[in-house]
Amino acid sequence: MLSKFSLTALAVFSFCAHLHAQIKTKTSSAIDQKVDKLLSQMTLEEKIGQLNQYTSDRLSTGPLTPNSTKYQEIKDGKVGSMLNVRGAKETRTIQEMAMQSRLKIPLLFGLDVIHGYRVTFPIPLAEAASWDLNAIESSARVAATEAAASGIHWTFAPMVDIARDPRWGRVMEGAGEDPYLGSLIARARVQGFQGKGLGNLDAVMACAKHFAAYGAAIAGRDYNTVDMSDRQLWETYLPPFKAAVDAGAATFMNSFNELNGIPATGNAYLQRDILKGKWNYQGFVVSDWGSISEMVAHGFAKNNTDAARLAITAGSDMDMEGHAYLTGLPVLVKENKVDVALINDAVKRILRKKFELGLFDDPYRFSNESREKKVLNSAQNHQAALDVAEKSVVLLKNDNQLLPLSKSTKTIAVIGPLGKSSNDMKGFWSVEWENDHLVSPFEGLQNKLGKQTNLLYSQGCNINDTVRTGFADAVATARKADVIIMAVGEAFNMSGEAKSRANIHLPGVQEDLIKAIKATGKPVVVMIMAGRPLIFNWTADHADAILYTWWLGSEAGNAMANVLFGDYNPAGKLPMSFPRAEGQIPVFYSSKNTGRPSPNGQPALYRSSYLDIPNTPQYAFGYGLSYTNFSFADLKLNKSQITKNDDVTVSFTLKNTGKYAGEEVVQLYLQDVVASVTRPVKELKDFQKVYLKPGESKTISFAITREKLSFYDQKMNWTTEPGEFKLMIGNASDHILLQDKFELVD
Ligand code: GLC
């Protein structure tokens, strides 16, 4: 059996051979002909310039390398792209520099438009909690429309890393723990960003990142080592990337982490064998910030030049702030250590996108100030942000139907460090604007209630306080109110990149504050704002109602108020499990049964369990309540036995049995009970978000196709095997309401 390394060398060699062959015989499209023509006019230095990307002076989103010559290098045709430049005016100014170069090749302008550009949308993990693919796509669509109107060609999104470790700060940027939900959301976001296709003035290039498995960093510590089986990689971490390829993602970004001993940036298995080989990907790969030169720190490259060799050979097309390609590649080609065909391929991939964007026809077509003024920050975009924000809220608890509150409540007290915070509502990875205004929780209530309600406020403590000096005032304030709304959580910058936390309890003394307020005997609603699942076990047991509001963006306070007073009935479902303790991490729903399963996950002797806590999370994947209730009944399967060419059609009746109209996310899980490889106790295979009025019922049906029964066998072949399948339908992964089984026969 060939070693992985020799397989990779073989892959690179065959790739070069294929490349040479391809260049000769490929039936080129019109754009390819233009690319080939331009390539033939370029010097080696100009080609390498296209592979070079620098940050602006406005913003650096990584460790900055001082660079006083970047603008001269742009004029000399030594830069292919800039990131962190934004605005019609600013992009036009820098593009004009590129037009001074010999061949006048336009720059690409990239920016992290992760959850909104001028209007800030909920963080991606919050949007994932909506399970509303149309809403998620529309959020990306608005972001793209605003960004494209402001000179941006390319967003470094969607981040599609599966993440099962809430200690990792970047969980806020993705779609949670599940590859099925994550793949659908990846597709929705790519479609949202790219709209009707590149070249349209409201479309930006998407960038599927971080390729690959960045979310599996050991101990949830950002940039840390990733080591996993090929099975885990293919079953869990690659599917959303494949979904992004299938959705036409224009670009990919690789990742800082090593995977099984090889840094992703220098990993030919990932970038050549899988992405550009098996998946036949035609876009280009940008390194993550400095990740090429960081291969020296990894101990994988001797120096920057060696890192450049490893990266270009492995399929990393563009060097983001690594300062490795520009100086290293000319030497490597001269010394025959890098085949110029590899450089030509990378350049062609990049030039193709510039042609597709129409930049050679008009390098300034996205840098139009009058369009920028018209499109950005419109009331329509704010309304879109409000709609998505409402859908992102998850109702975790609602004892005695405390919620929704009555608008005729006389006195309401808002208590907690985030009650009047506007800036925190933006979450990490928002685009910074001078004098931006985001609606705080308190302001949202003011907007909703006007003067009819006596609205009180007390901060109680700061987010990371160790002192309780503010408690007395908070308690006194609470005593004056009919109901208390706590506004607690993290600060916006306690999650995001380089924001891992070993302790993910509610920070500081906030839970003590909740206890003090609860002790007044008043009804307490707790709103928790964060970019990750937090641990708040006492609150979970004692609060009367709990809303998880993540970071909801520009319209945060208005969305919260609409939910609190029932103008919107919450329907969010958790895209990630919430642990009871850091010691449980990683805890996720699609776990294996093991040879010694513990009954209901409870502590049990000689069983896979803990002595001190249950195996189950505080809140499970797919969990979320509504102000109304739904019944699930009359489960029917059209067959109890199928062959490999059949589908099973499943149907059941969903009914709104409560007094509010609302939406339910009905979730279909399957278990392959016995297989040649152990399979999870359940896997999400389909879902539907259904709106019903009080008393209304609807027949819901799912088609279970062979694809949904497939898995990687012992030889990593994607296959199905005969045997029994357990079918489960519910409104949370731990709340199955209907179940049956069927058999797949040869
Ligand atoms: C950062 C992030 C990446 C981002 C890039 C540009 O380090 O890892 O997600 O797109 O650099 O800001």
Please give the share of residues in helix.
25-40%
Average pLDDT reading: 96
Question: What characteristic shape results from the CA principal axes?
Answer: globular
Question: Which ions and ligands are bound to the chains?
Answer: alpha-D-glucopyranose
SS-based class? alpha/beta
CATH-defined topology of the largest domain? TIM Barrel
- Largest sheet strand order: 11-16-15-14-12-13
By DSSP, the count of extended strands is 26
Tally of helical segments = 22
**CATH superfamily of the largest domain, please?**
Glycoside hydrolase, family 3, N-terminal domain
Binned strand content: 15-25%
Note the quaternary state here.
single chain
CATH class of the largest domain, anyone? Answer: Alpha Beta
Task: Please mark out the parts with pLDDT under 50 across 5 or more consecutive residues, or reply none.
Answer: 1-5, 21-28
Number of spatially distinct domains: 3
Distance from first to last alpha carbon: 31 Å
Rg over C-alpha atoms, rounded to the nearest angstrom:
27 Å
Main beta sheet strand tally, sense and closure: 6 strands, mixed
Question: What would your notes on this structure say?
Answer:
It is a single chain. By secondary structure, this protein is α/β, with parallel strands linked by helices. It is built from 22 helices and 26 strands. The protein folds into 3 domains: 24-372, TIM Barrel, CATH 3.20.20; 394-571, Rossmann fold, CATH 3.40.50; 628-744, Sandwich (Immunoglobulin-like). The strands form 7 sheets. A 6-stranded mixed sheet has the order 11-16-15-14-12-13, with helices on both faces. A 5-stranded parallel sheet has the order 4-3-2-1-10. It is globular. The model is unreliable at 1-5 and 21-28 (pLDDT under 50). Alpha-D-glucopyranose is lined by residues 61-62, 83, 112, 156, 209, 288-289, 497.
